[in-house]
Amino acid sequence: MPLVGSSSGFCSPSSGFCSSSSPWTVTTFLLISRPLPSRLASPLHGLSLSCFHEATDQDGRFLALSISPSHKAAAAVVSQCSAVKKIHVSEWQRDQINKTEVAYRDSDLISACVLPMVRRLSSYSSNEFILSLSTSKISPFSKISILSTSSLSSLSSSSSSSSSPPPPPLVPDHVSHCKPIFSPFYHLLPHTQNPNKIVNLISSTLKQKSPNLSLLQNDIRAILPKLGANQISRILLRSQSDYSSALTFFNWVKHDLGIIHTVQNYCIVIHILAWSGIFSESMNLLSELIQLVEVQSFALNEDIHQNLAVCAENCNWNPVIFDMLIKAYVKVGMIEKGLETFRKNVEACFVPSVTACNCLLSGLSKFNYDGYCWEVYEEMGRLGIHGNGYTFNILTHVLCKDGDSDKVNGFLDKMEEEGFEPDLVTYNTLLNSYCRKRRLEEAFYLYKIMHIRGVMPNLISFTALMNGLCKEGKVKKAHQLFHQMVHSGIDPDIISYNTLIGGYCREGKTQMCRLLLHEMIGKGICPDNISCRLVIKGYVKDGKLASALNLVVELKRFRVKIPEDLHDYLLVALCKERKPFAARSLLQRVSEDGGYTPKVSTYNEVVVSLCKFNNVEEAIALKSEMAKKGMSLNLSAYGAIIRCWCEANKTMEAEGLLEEMVCSGILPDLEICRVFVNGYCKERNVEQAVLLLNLFAKEFRVYDTESYNAVVKVFCEDGNVAELMELQDRLLKVGYVPNSLTCKYVIQGLQKTMVLDNELLDQTMLET
Fold this sequence. Notes:
Layout lengths: L24 E2 L4 E2 L19 E5 L6 E5 L4 H7 L31 H13 L5 E7 L9 E5 L4 H6 L39 H9 L6 H7 L9 H10 L4 H14 L6 H13 L3 H17 L8 H9 L7 H12 L3 H13 L6 H13 L3 H14 L5 H14 L2 H13 L6 H13 L3 H13 L6 H13 L3 H13 L6 H13 L3 H13 L6 H13 L3 H13 L6 H13 L3 H15 L5 H13 L3 H13 L6 H13 L3 H13 L6 H13 L3 H14 L5 H14 L2 H14 L5 H28 L1
Antiparallel strand pairs: 1-5, 2-4, 3-4, 5-6
Helix pairs in contact: 4-6, 6-7, 6-8, 7-8, 8-9, 8-10, 9-11, 11-12, 11-13, 12-13, 13-14, 13-15, 15-16, 15-17, 17-18, 17-19, 18-19, 19-20, 19-21, 20-21, 21-22, 21-23, 22-23, 23-24, 23-25, 25-26, 25-27, 26-27, 27-28, 27-29, 29-30, 29-31, 31-32, 31-33, 32-33, 33-34, 33-35
């Protein structure tokens, strides 16, 4: 049967593929994922490569291999193919297709020709496929058209042949927000209004030297809603060779169009960037994707590692991306996810690099997952990943945290057996561990070993030893070591100075601390918050509050910033030293000069201190100042002012403050109740005192027996037994419970009443 058929047997002139006068030949295909290997020439009936034509499809992902019938050898083979013939090629390097079909067809067997293409290509292009037609008059790939499988459903249903399961699609159906819509009338529309042209339009714009996506956005505004995850993925894949265009498009979709990318879109652009060697931007996008998926729950049940692996089947990729995923998880503090990714990499035969392993080990150690550190280390040995000095230093640090010196020494021996000499970092890790555990003898022995092996101690080494000496109270020896360090040419830093200052402060030698501060400033090292806190609190602890205040003034003169919390500390210290006026003065100076507003608790402390010295006017003025700054008194401060007013027989003012306190949501306590009752009793205003007792019992559930006894005592002193009994009944009903002192006052009252009655009777008898 001849290969060349009439146009009526294949397609009509209106179909857009051919004209009625042109003899058409069905071009056969072989879909592959990379350029054709020369070893494939032999299986194809001995045809030489000169018989074949290669071309990429519209997405730039595949190559099509056509057999040209113009070649004599090819024509001889093809002419014998009156029925379907298949040649199977397997074991392709990194090929998505497990079994590739090469089919030769003639025009009368068009259904047999199209159906294998439908089955193979529909899984890669989301229900689209590429059909290439050629004649002897034109190039085999000058005509390429995209057809819908839906238009060939009748052919598909009529075929009884089976095909192997297709590979996974590039973009799953559940994330394809906008699928292409095919209509026989779309070809009549302008390209800028044809939804099926959106991928071509954007891809063409990106290939320009200076792509203007904003201008394109205005031109294709009508079809932009059709831009879904599938189309975005196809455009990204077409831009694989130009990472800049891919990234520009990715950001344009995200920022300008406001479309939320799928995890697959992220993975594709990350692969493109990593393949192009743009690792910093790849890491940034990986971190962004982790935040979206793991933190913000943007895509539930999405596995980033799995998506990266799936997307790697469809685009160029660099294995380093799976290392970077481990680092990205560690970078954001998701250590468990990093460990999980490490395990997945091993299962998928992606051998992690030693750098990725070290990053994971460092994160595990930092978050105290020490047991998992050894799991990773053992896996490294099984995979043949040779650790470096950084690896051993991390593991040495892990062992030092456990404090098992035998394990540490054994591990160091293993290091040396594997050819790694302990370096300065290793020794510093050990020195710091020994000094923290106060094993100074071993620390200084190691210090000598360093000199013997030619490893010179650095600033960290000396500081660790000084810290250990200071903790043992050997500050003088620490200072000698400090001088030894300086003489060896190592300049001290703020940490080494703070180590000495802390040691001297613990011994109460504040004058030495002051000298060290001046020495620091003289060398151009500005004291930090730790330095200031150590010295100032050391002065206060030794009862030298005035010296502490003078030091603050002195440090400010040297432009040293005093920590804000130290101002509060000094204000409270002045109040405790019963120096409220100095505290008030410092408070005002700090607020005006430093621009710092002390804590509300500090203000309340000053108010209470002023009231202890009966300076209620200054306390009220400070209260007004607090109100302007949006602060309010606490219970202690309210109670202090109320006490001052009640003691000054100003119960009316105290009642107003009580009402203000209750309105602000602060309920009075026993102390305030006693202050009021004692004030009323002092004024002999027992009726108001009784009303207050009822108020506190009913409204605030405050039952103060001491206040109750104070009122009973006044009644007893006046000898009003009848009123006393009536008061007893009233207060018992609201919940007050008398105690032994109450009974004592009542008995004294009754006795006094009897004495008064006898005196009155005697006087009456004398008068009569």
